[in-house]
Amino acid sequence: MEITTTDLGLAARVQQLTKTYGSGDSAVHALAGVSVGIRRSEFTAIMGPSGSGKSTLMHVMAGLDAPTSGRAWIGDTDITGLSDLELTILRRRRVGFVFQSFNLVPTLTALGNILLPFDLDGRRPSALERARIDGLVDTLGLAPRLGHRPHELSGGQQQRVAIARALATGPDLVFADEPTGNLDSRSGREVLSLLATASREHGQSIAMVTHDPLAASHADRVLFLGDGRIVADKPRQSAEEISAYMLAAELGAAQTGAAA
User: Fold this and answer.
1) In DSSP terms, which residues pair with 230 in a beta bridge?
2) For position 249, what pLDDT does the model report?
3) Whether 48 contacts 54, CB under 8 Å
4) Residues spanned by the domain of 239
5) What CA–CA distance (Å, rounded) separates 163 from 110?
6) What are the two backbone dihedrals, phi and then psi, of residue 256, each rounded to the nearest 5 degrees?
7) Using CB atoms within 10 A of its CB, is residue 233 exposed (0-12), middle (13-18) or buried (19+)?
8) Which of 48, 101, 111, 189 has the fewest CB atoms in 10 Å of its CB?
9) How many domains, in total, are found in the chain?
C-alpha cells in the first residue's frame, strides 16, 4: 500500500527529485535526488548558498517548474503529471505565494490585489473568507491603504498586501521566496511574525526560501541545501547557530575545493 502525504503529516513532499538545466558539458544539476517533506502547520526555512538549489526546490514543489525526474505532491495530489491548466487551478485554490518583488498588479488597488485570487477563480469570497480578509487587513494595518495602488505604498506595505493576498483564500500551503529581501529590518520582522502566526495559529504550512539567518531563526525547522542536496535538517535555530553552521559549511566547501 502506498503511503500518502497526509498519512505522513505533510502538506507537500518530493521524492528523488532531480532538476538539470542544459545538457552535456554545460549541464547544471540544480537538484540531485532530493527527498523531503514540508510538515503540516509548520514554518520551514530553506537555506543555502547561492546556486545550492533552494529556489529551484521551491519552484518544483509549488508546481511552478517541472522536475527532470522524480515526483512531487501537494497534499495527496501528485503534481508531476498534471497539465498546465490543472496546475494553475491547484495552485490558485490550495497554495499561496509571497515573492521578494511583491508581484502586485500595478493597476489594481491594495484591496483589488488582495481579492485577485477570487477574481481569477471567478467567484466572490464566502462570508468566512470575507471575515478572514477583514482580519488580515486589520492585523496588517492595511485598512487606511486599501484604496491605494502599489506605487502609492511603501515596500513594507506592498509586502503586507502580498501576504494578505497569499493568505486570503486560507491555503494549506504558503511558499515565500526571500519575502524580506527588499524590506527594512522593522518591516521584515513584521512579515516574519505574520508568517509564523499563520503557521502557529491558523495551521498553515509555510515554506520560506531565505539566505538571511535572522529570517530563518523565526522558523520551526531549517533545511540546508548544498550542491543540489539537503545537507542538514535542523529544528528551530538561533540566528547565531544558523550563521555558524553556514560559515562552517562554506569553509568546508572551500577546503574541499582547494584540496581537489
Assistant:
1) 225
2) 82
3) yes
4) 40-66+76-259
5) 11
6) -60, -45
7) exposed
8) 101
9) 1
| Euclidean distance between CA atoms 80 and 71, whole angstroms | 6
pLDDT digits (tens, 9 = 90+) for 75-89: 999 999 899 999 998
The C-alpha atoms of residue 144 and residue 194 are separated, in whole angstroms, by 19
- Closest listed residue to residue 171, CA positions, set 208, 197, 201, 202: 202
Sheet architecture: strand order including 77-78 = 28-39, 10-21, 69-74, 77-78
Distance between CA 140 and CA 128 in Å, rounded?
18
Identify which of 200, 201, 191, 141 has the alpha carbon closest to the alpha carbon of residue 166.
Answer: 191
Sign of CA dihedral 161, 163, 164, 169: positive
248 burial via Cβ count (<10 Å: 0-12, 13-18, 19+): exposed
What CATH number is attached to the domain comprising 250? 3.40.50.300
Does some domain include residue 12?
no
C-alpha to C-alpha distance for 55 and 59, rounded to whole angstroms: 6
Q: What is the 3-state secondary structure (H, E, C) of 223-238?
A: EEEECCEEEEEEECCC
Instruction: Average the pLDDT over 255-259 and give the result.
Output: 61
Please name every residue paired with 98 in a beta bridge, in sequence order, or none if there are none. Answer: 176
Per-residue pLDDT tens over the stretch 18-57: 999 998 888 889 999 999 999 999 999 999 988 889 999 9
